Amino acid sequence: MAGFRGDERAADEARELGEALGRLRRAAGLSQAEAGARTGMTGQGWGLYESGRRPGLFRPDVQRRLTAALGAEPESLALEAGAEVSRATGGASPGVEAAGRKFISAPVAAPAPSAQIVLTDDALHPWASAGTVVEYDPGRFPRRGQGCVLEHVDGTVSVWLFDGADADRLHLRRGPDAPLDSIPRDGIRGLSAVLVRRET
After folding, report:
1. Angle between helices 32-39 and 43-50 in degrees, nearest 10
2. Most exposed residue of 34, 60, 101, 129, measured as fewest CB within 10 angstroms of its CB?
């Protein structure tokens, strides 16, 4: 019986991930046939992923290939799946909690509009280069290794890779292999998770 419940749970998770893929595809303005053509498969094959009937959707390489066809990243798929669970349960955004932190997300009642910024230099190469459009979700706290946008109290905005935080400082990197920088929280007005990177 325990194995049967495990199979049901896996099927539910596959369905939720497939539905998140479908929402990303619709947000990109593509049909299943168009998205499938970008990955060398038929629209029917793409539809099997969206319906949760193709188990490969859990594989990181498959997620990279499918989300790339939509101009997105695998983290966008995970965030979309997590955001839908949060909307359905009326809970807070996933991964955002800790009493005493300045950056705590409010419960999500509806999808929040995202914001965009265009990178003007190659400081984050190879993660992103000049001209990359970065879409971010104001108020969503980033995960370790995820891109983030800082709104400084002086009005400037900067993009970093998030590496962690403590009560007084944010720990960030300018690129995947760059040294760690620590920025005092009192100089930051807002911190937002990057959802999508698009090369222009």
Report:
1. 100
2. 60
Residue appearing with tokens 């001209």: 131
**DSSP helix/strand/coil, 51:** coil
The model carries a pTM of: 0.46
CB proximity list for 130: less than 8 A, separation 6 or greater = 119, 120, 121, 122
Give the angle subtended at the CA of 92 by the CAs of 89 and 98, to the nearest 5°: 140
pLDDT tens profile 122-171 = 888 888 888 989 888 887 788 888 889 999 999 999 999 988 888 889 99
Residue 18 CA to residue 31 CA, distance in Å, equals: 15
CA-CA distance, 9 to 140, in Å (whole number)?
A: 27
